Amino acid sequence: MSAPAAPVRNAFIDHLRVLMTVLVILHHAAIVYGGSGGWYWREEPNASNRLLILFNAVNQSWFMGFFFLLAGYFTPGPYDRKGPGRFLADRFLRLGVPLLVYFLFGSTFTIALARTGSGHPLWAGWWRMIAIREFEPGPLWFAEALLLFALAYAAWRRWIATGQPSWPDVPGPRALLIAALGVGGVSFAVRFVVPVGKNVVWLQLGYFPAYVLLFAAGCWSAKARVLERVTLAQARPWAILSAVMFVALPVVMITNGGVGGFDGGWHFNAFFYALWDPLIAWGIILTLLWSFRTYLPGTGPLPAFLSRHAFAAYIVHPPVLVGLSLLARGVTLPPLLKFGAVGGAACAGAFAVAGLLLLLPGVKKIL
Fold first, then answer.
1. Who is most buried in 106, 210, 216, 258, counting CB within 10 A?
2. 185 lies in a domain?
3. Torsion, CA 197, CA 15, CA 70, CA 191, rounded to 10
4. Is the torsion defined by CA of 109, 110, 111, 117 positive or negative?
5. Considering the domain boundaries, does residue 3 fall inside one?
6. Considering the chain, what percentage of its residues have pLDDT values greater than 70?
């Protein structure tokens, strides 16, 4: 059996990881200032700014799914080189340890920090959060999900698959359209039971049909290095469709073109949103893969630093963002300007803290 190609870290893929990490931070900053979603602290009412709602919706449609696609892409190689035991041990070290630390200490600290906005003390509040076991993974739900996917992949390779299947090339338009419609249909069905915004063991299962498919697609793309061979001709029609979908959502929102909520149920809006997610996501993902490979193929000191510290910045950004947004609450600015200023500062702050964190002994072995 021929092993999948070794997971060489191409610079353009690392640039994409940095972009997505920055967007995660900005996504949460948007919630603070009127976007939609859950976060530790907000200054403006939830879903009070339509531009930030659209920003959050577009982000949500693709960026976490893209993370899962890349995670799957770099899964078969390590599994074949290390075997199931070492593969899972490595995953539990690199994902499980950050998840546990954030679950026990990071989330409680961030909650306590957010509550200082209501006059509660920080350190006593942090201890109280630990004492009453108010634990949660926060954004580290991603690490929780990846651990589950790693276990599922190892079980599949051990008991079901005789080897790692692979695609020889980017799937054609028909296959991608069927995949998008399938994901939309399954998501619509799942959201009858678990609507958008509802967590099950800290996971929003309403989005997981796309995550599962994209992780599997990443695994199947690894051997032939498909993600590194996306062409403009393959990306262009999906980019056009993404542009159409980008316009369609605000039109439906503004004109109330459908009935019912977008989060789930037997409603037009719920059905539209379930299909809208993959139909806009595929084009964004393919376009970014082509454009970053074409225009950002190399690296340099700053991109290399950002790439090396992206996961650590992802981990530490919640308290950084909450702290900065609390410091800025007395500044009088329009919400969009405040989002830009605080979001940009939070991005810089998260990567700076990540740089300090990786100076600690032993941390580089994990992160």
1. 210
2. yes
3. 20
4. positive
5. no
6. 96
